[in-house]
Amino acid sequence: MLKVGVIGAGSMGRHHVRVYSELENCRLVGVADPDPGKQELADKHGTQLFTDYHALLEQGPDLVSIAAPTVMHYQAARDAISAGCHLLVEKPISDDLAKAQELVELARAAGKIIAIGHIERFNPAVSELKQIIASGELGEVLTVNNLRVGPYHGRIADTGIVLDLGTHDVDLISYLLDARAESVFCNAMQRVHNHEDHAVLQMQFPAGRTGIIETSWLAPYRARNIFCVGTKHFALCDLMNQLILVYEDNPEGNNLLAGLRHVERGEPLKRELEHVVQCVMDGSQPLCTAEDSIYALSVCLAALKSIEIGASVAVGAAQAAG
Ligand SMILES: NC(=O)c1ccc[n+]([C@@H]2O[C@H](COP(=O)([O-])OP(=O)(O)OC[C@H]3O[C@@H](n4cnc5c(N)ncnc54)[C@H](O)[C@@H]3O)[C@@H](O)[C@H]2O)c1
After folding, report:
1. CATH number for region 121-265+299-314
2. Nearest CA, atom 2, ligand 1
3. Residue to probe by mutation, ligand 1, list 7, 11, 163, most atoms within 8 Å of CB
4. 183 near 229, Cβ under 8 Å?
5. Residue 322 DSSP class
6. To pair with 201 at 20 to 30 A between CA atoms, which of 11, 165, 195, 224?
7. Atom of ligand 1 nearest to the CA of 38
8. What's the rounded Cα separation, in Å, for the pair 7 and 66?
9. Cα–Cα distance between 228 and 226 in angstroms, integer?
């Protein structure tokens, strides 16, 4: 039985609390949040609330989820590693590349797993799409275009949309293409947030392949879609409804035939936490490695630099240039 804890029980962390409390091989030893109003959540899931996360770490959890605001990930993760915990840090790993790298080195030196919550990899529709691509059915994938839009919920204040939501799609597109972007160009707007709240990223991958992300907090409706263009076929994946349509040429004419693929539905967070718990139990490597999340952060930081200078930025150059 793994002892688990959650640091930060807000919009995302409360789901970690719920899911851990449902996993048979876990015992939730506590929830840490400075907001005493989270007592109700702790009571509901039969655990203790600590208003200081150090008190939670004193309970000796084997694994902690860190779902406090992004700017706090570094300190909480450092303290949790020092306390001997394995980690699941919500995405993005940090807002700062040097801090992210330090965390990964600290975890490695301590022999602890540091998984990052790139939850969309655990969306069953993404698992199915990855298999469709691997089977060669789409041919060679030339470009993956992701749309992730919705109204601003007023919660995330510490980072703009590139780091908050763009991170998901940088990771997803790179995962689907099984490649890393060489450079990124980004256009952005700022209308309702203190950072950018609408951004379009164009990532350049080796061999002329591209990844395009439109992400916005200015849209009146929510959509999370992947458009995958292959040399043979085209796939449309709806992440919210967990649906995949594959469009194929119609030999009878010019129309495209759309076929709906079977996706075994499931809760992405539950699949993610089960996976991380399993990694801790058998010492295996998480599907999304810490290096993957550092790469995703590097692309997002390069995109922010691109907004600033109005030109394409090589991935890694944004940090080198300071
Ligand atoms: N994987 C995903 O799909 C996903 C979705 C939403 C948010 N997130 C990530 O989760 C993190 C939190 O986002 P959110 O939307 O839940 O924010 P939120 O503001 O709803 O929740 C943050 C919580 O952390 C608590 N907190 C603040 N300081 C703390 C401290 N020192 N110790 C413990 N708790 C503290 C706050 O009281 C609050 O309850 C961010 O990094 C965000 O990027 C990931």
Report:
1. 3.30.360.10
2. 119
3. 11
4. no
5. -
6. 11
7. 39
8. 5
9. 6
Q: Domain 2-112, CATH 3.40.50.1000 — does that match?
A: no
Q: Quote the ligand 1 centre to 95 CA distance (angstroms).
A: 14
Q: At what angle do helices 268-282 and 13-22 cross, to 10 degrees?
A: 60
**Ligand 1 atom 18 nearest Cα:** 10
CB-based burial label for 80 (10 Å; 0-12, 13-18, 19+): buried
Q: Where are the domains of the chain?
A: 2-112, 121-265+299-314
pLDDT in tens, the chain (322 residues): 999 999 999 999 999 999 999 999 999 999 999 999 999 999 999 999 999 999 999 999 999 999 999 999 999 999 999 999 999 999 999 989 999 999 999 999 999 999 999 999 999 999 999 999 999 999 999 999 999 999 998 777 788 999 999 999 999 999 999 999 999 999 999 988 888 999 999 999 999 999 999 999 999 999 999 999 999 999 999 999 999 999 987 777 666 777 899 999 999 999 999 999 999 999 999 999 889 999 999 999 999 999 999 999 999 865 554 4
123 lines ligand 1 (CB under 6 A): no
